[in-house]
Write a structure and sequence with these properties.
This protein is α+β, with helices and mostly antiparallel strands. The chain contains 23 helices and 23 strands. An 8-stranded antiparallel sheet has the order 3-4-2-14-20-17-19-18. α1 crosses α7. The longest helix is centred in the middle third of the chain and has 54 residues, at 271-324. The two termini are 32 Å apart. The relative contact order is 0.10. InterPro entries: SecD, SecD/SecF_arch_bac, SecD/SecF_bac, SecD/SecF_CS, SecD_1st, SecD_SecF_C, SecD_SecF_C_bact, SecDF_P1_head. This is Multifunctional fusion protein. Residues 742-770 are annotated as: Disordered.
């Protein structure tokens, strides 16, 4: 064992031990879509006197935190997002009506003198000193009260408690305790009211909450003029129920919001859906990982089995990183974790295929030297392909929101962990094995001393590709035209995330067909609702603007036919947020194209970069067109899948062009079509084997993941198949056509020309041929 191998082995063991310790001692932080609950996004709005900036949003956040804490929700999460948005996560809250009613109330509490009562329809006189109209509000019985200016605000209230008083008609009251200074104002206010005779409207004090009179009691006849009530506190009566009294006390105690807030997004997920998603993802991960491990073991024998061990190490390391960093696991994030398992084999496949080439090119290579050369030659392709995936993950994080952002974090952690497992763990294991004489002497055991089946078949057939590159571009153009036809003819079914509205999924105790549900809801006044079936016979209802009370009425109407009706999933997106998300999605796609183009132009020739980006756009259009033809929704989860397809497409193109760059730099006089054919044939085994590893995972997700992950897996399945095609038959022919047009000189080994960076001399072909 060499010193470098020993260092890698020690590092791998140390990281694995730490990862195992974290995995066993820490619990993952589950998002609401996995544990059940309600998530709200509140938008702070400018008031007449206060602007909704970062400072006022922070003050609003503190008031909301007190209110949520008083609701008794276990482990609520409140965070500010941007300048004027607040994210509220309430685990286990399935009916958001109470939470929304308490959280969203401005709760501006004020105490006013009553100047008199007016008959219905009468207008109050203007104030003689200012000309302004007095405040006119109805009391509890509907009598119009003419109120004077505010004498005491809610800021003077020290505490508020709900209690049952048997002597009161309604029983429930709210007791208020004042701060010292505010108590004096209360005594003055009630003392002035006591100067009027008993029964006079002016002997009343109006308590107003959010411009609504909640109580306007008469000052007791025993209170003398200018004496007033004691400054310690008072009681609010008004025939409250227990719930109304507690909510009122909660609002008053929490204080007034500095600025009003509006619910622009609300998502509710039932706990059963979250548990089912976790189970389905776990099954998909186990089955997909087992199939991938078996596949690479069959292809690469002993070294494939060692790569499977490294794959298991990757799973432990990435899971520990997610738990240790406190990353919230969402449903898309869980899918990203599972998907990264399939992508983790890519680096190992690249190395093993390079080592196979080395074994075929050298007369009598040692297994260790072939493996070392394989790691060295594959490093540039591994680095470039993973960086492009990290770029896509970064775009998901910075331009996505909610679960999509979580998917970007999970994908990035998965990419980094996969590189460590391949370049450290797998390398240490395979180098130790390569030092064994038994492994070296038996090519059928180690798995890389003999060419694989795909490589042998290609050597025998030697297909003549790229003699007419324009023909391949025509085929790609036809595929794009079919996809665009689907977009034009069928249209894109944008989800509520991009259009605004509400999407609710219900589970009923009795089966209800779509037509019956549609007619029932139409009779209840929801004629514009779109009703479809969801998984396991559930009913999915999509409407435009619908508040929480409207959703409750909708569910009640559906229960007349379906019996006990349980809300499984609920998504509410405000129109302003929908416009913003749609704009951000387009920005994300445009930035993805520009960033990938810039990176590839730096790392390769500009012609290669353009060919790769054309292939990427080709893949995006076809995936969107396929969803248009299939009538599948395009939502935030689809956007996550689409940006992943972008990363995968560029990943494939990078591997092919990395080989083109290497072969062309070593054979400058060979025509580019010949070089491209050799590069494609040499990289096809890697493309096939890596694609199969990802397909195993995605098929498992599509079959076992349920409706929540089916569209995600379907988009990636289409994207990987199309991306594999385009990296060979769109990107490469496109680069060839561009090179013919520009007639640029080939790259010089060890130098960089103005059109791209050439490889170092140690990346030469060394005579490797197919």
């Amino acid at each position: 064992m060499t010193r470098a191998t020993a260092v890698r082995a020690v590092l791998a063991v140390a990281v694995l031990l730490v990862s195992v310790y974290i995995s066993l001692t820490m619990s993952p932080r589950l998002g609401l879509d996995l544990q059940g609950g309600t998530r709200m996004v509140l938008q702070a709005k400018d008031s007449a006197t206060v602007k909704a900036d970062r400072e006022t949003t922070d003050r609003t956040l503190e008031v909301l935190r007190q209110r949520v804490d008083s609701l008794g929700v276990a482990e609520p999460v409140l965070t500010r997002s941007g300048e004027d948005r607040i994210i509220v996560e309430l685990p286990d809250v399935q009916d958001p009506r109470q939470a929304a009613a308490v959280i969203g109330r401005t709760a501006q509490l004020s105490f006013h003198p009553v100047l008199g009562a007016l008959p219905p329809g009468a207008e109050p006189e203007a104030k003689p000193e200012t000309g302004e109209k007095r405040l006119l509000l109805p009391d509890e019985q509907g009598v119009q009260l003419d109120l004077g200016p505010t004498q005491l605000s809610g800021a003077g209230v020290k505490d508020a408690t709900a209690s049952f008083d048997a002597q009161q008609a309604g029983g429930w009251t709210v007791s208020l305790d004042f701060h010292k200074g505010a108590g004096k104002d209360w005594t003055k206010l009630t003392g002035e009211a006591a100067c009027h005779p008993a029964g006079d409207e002016r002997r009343r004090v109006a308590i107003v909450l959010d411009e609504k009179v909640i109580s306007s009691p008469q000052v007791d006849p025993s209170v003398g003029c200018q004496v007033g009530l004691p400054s310690g506190g008072t009681q609010i009566t008004g025939s409250f129920t227990a719930k109304e009294a507690r909510d009122l006390a909660l609002l008053i105690k929490g204080g007034a919001l500095p600025v009003p807030v509006e619910i622009v997004e609300q998502r509710t997920v039932g706990p059963t859906l979250g548990a089912a998603a976790i189970d389905a993802s776990a099954q998909a991960a186990l089955i997909g990982a087992a199939a991938t491990a078996l596949f690479i073991t069959v292809i690469y024998r002993l070294f494939g089995a060692l790569a499977a061990v490294a794959l298991a190490a990757y799973g432990v390391i990435s899971y520990a990183a997610l738990v240790g960093l406190g990353v919230t696991l969402t449903l898309p994030g869980l899918a990203g974790f599972v998907l990264a398992i399939g992508m983790a084999v890519d680096a190992n496949v690249l190395v093993f295929e390079r080592a196979r080439e080395e074994c075929q090119a050298q007369p009598k290579p040692t297994l260790r030297s072939a493996l070392t050369t394989g790691f060295r030659k594959a490093f540039s392709a591994v680095a470039d392909s993973n960086i492009t995936t990290l770029l896509a993950a970064g775009l998901l994080f910075f331009l996505g929101s909610g679960p999509v952002k979580g998917f970007g974090v999970t994908l990035a952690i998965g990419v980094i962990a996969s590189m460590f497992s391949a370049l450290v763990v797998a390398r240490a294991l395979t180098e130790i094995a390569a030092g064994s004489r038994f492994v070296s002497d038996y090519p059928g055991v180690n798995g890389i001393a003999r060419p694989g089946g795909v490589r042998t078949w290609l050597i025998r057939k030697d297909p003549k590709l790229f003699r007419k590159p324009v023909q391949w571009l025509v085929v790609s153009a036809v595929l794009v035209a079919v996809a665009v036809g689907g977009i034009v003819v069928r249209g894109i079914d944008l989800g509520v995330e991009f259009t605004g509205g509400r999407l609710v999924e219900y589970s009923t105790s009795r089966p209800v067909d779509v037509e019956t549900a549609r007619s029932t809801l139409a009779e209840a006044g929801f004629g514009d609702a779109e009703v479809t079936t969801a998984g396991d016979g559930d009913i999915s209802v999509r409407t435009g603007k619908l508040d929480n009370d409207g959703e409750h009425a909708l569910r009640t109407a559906l229960a007349t036919e379906g019996g006990e009706t349980t809300k499984v999933r609920d998504e509410l997106i405000g129109p302003s947020l929908g416009d913003e998300l749609r704009r951000n999605a387009l920005i994300a796609l445009a930035v993805a194209v520009l960033v990938q183009l810039a990176y590839l132009a730096v790392r390769f020739r500009w012609t290669f970069a353009v060919g790769s980006v054309v292939a990427m756009v080709h893949d995006v259009v076809i995936v969107v067109g396929a969803f248009a033809w299939l009538g599948r929704p395009v939502d935030g989860i689809f956007l996550a899948a689409l940006l992943t397809v972008i990363g995968y497409s560029v990943n494939d193109s990078v591997v092919v062009f990395d080989r083109v760059r290497e072969l062309w730099g070593a054979n400058r006089k060979t025509p580019l079509p010949t070089i491209a054919r050799r590069a494609v044939l040499q990289t096809v085994p890697r493309t096939v084997n890596t694609g199969m590893g990802a397909l195993f995972i995605l098929v498992a997700l599509a079959v076992l993941g349920g409706d929540s992950l089916a569209d995600f897996a379907l988009a990636l399945l289409i994207g990987i198949v199309v991306g594999t095609w385009s990296s060979v038959f769109t990107a490469v022919p496109g680069a060839i056509v561009l090179e013919r047009t520009t007639n640029a000189p080939p790259p010089v080994p060890g130098k960089t020309n103005r059109r791209g960076r050439a490889p170092r001399r140690d990346l030469a072909d060394n005579g490797a041929r197919v």
